[in-house]
Amino acid sequence: MANHWMKDRLKAVPLFRELSDYELDSLVAISHVRVYKPRTFVFMQGDPLERVYFIHSGTVKIYKTDFSGKEQIVSILQTGEMFPHAGFFLKGTYPAHAEVVEEATLIAIPIHDFEQVLMASPELCIKLFRVMGEKIVDLQNRLEAQVLHNTYEQIVLLLLRLTRTNAVKQGKWHRLTAHVTNRELANMIGTARETVSRTLSQLKRKGLIDVDEHGFYLIDREGLEQEIFF
């Protein structure tokens, strides 16, 4: 019964969706389920890098801190995503903090055991490389935004990125599926909270963003794209 439950959870992860029952069985044998409450850490920057995690439910914030304690948010991850992506290519310690934002059920797999499964499953390796390729392109786009765009445009580009990674379509709007504060938005691009607040107020006046009754941002993606490209 427990194995059947775990297999169903693994099938829900996009990376594992097309694996055979035999391949899934090899993952079930090395997987563990863990439940984390909000504001608890899955791991902290500098902890020994031992496991890779897949999100069955909940929200996890990945961020770095510098020597002064300043926070730089890398990503906000939700159902179906994995972290840390660098886990298969780095040895030593976790490169960032992983903090639970909304209660999360995670599937944890020891990296050494997962590497053995990858070596026995070329199809899974190819899928993982595709995921890594998407992350590399995302990082290139973020770097380009920092170099080529002013702060207003960087905030617009950030909102557009969130509509692709953390949103569902509702009519003309894309509704974010995670609560994000102005400070967190600022920490994603390295600017001041006040700057983000002013920009969001401008975008609200233009009718390009709004907030629903539950406090989730509503974003007019097509309208925002015109702010950048026209």
TrEMBL record:
Cellular component GO terms held in the UniProt record: cytosol
GO MF, any single term: DNA-binding transcription factor activity
Pinpoint the Cyclic nucleotide-binding domain residues.
15-135
- List, for all copies, the residue spans of the domain called HTH crp-type: 149-222
Query: Does the UniProt entry include the keyword DNA-binding?
Result: yes
Keyword check for Transferase, yes or no.
Answer: no
Which keywords, in A-to-Z order, does the entry hold? Activator, DNA-binding, Transcription, Transcription regulation
Q: Which InterPro entries match?
A: cNMP-bd_dom (IPR000595), cNMP-bd_dom_sf (IPR018490), Env_Response_Regulators (IPR050397), HTH_CRP (IPR012318), RmlC-like_jellyroll (IPR014710), Tscrpt_reg_HTH_Crp-type_CS (IPR018335), WH-like_DNA-bd_sf (IPR036388), WH_DNA-bd_sf (IPR036390)
Question: What PANTHER family does this protein's entry cite?
Answer: CRP FAMILY TRANSCRIPTIONAL REGULATORY PROTEIN, HTH-TYPE TRANSCRIPTIONAL REGULATOR ARCR
Name this protein carries in UniProt: Crp/Fnr family transcriptional regulator
Which species is the source of this protein? Geobacillus stearothermophilus
What's the source species' lineage? Bacteria, Bacillati, Bacillota, Bacilli, Bacillales
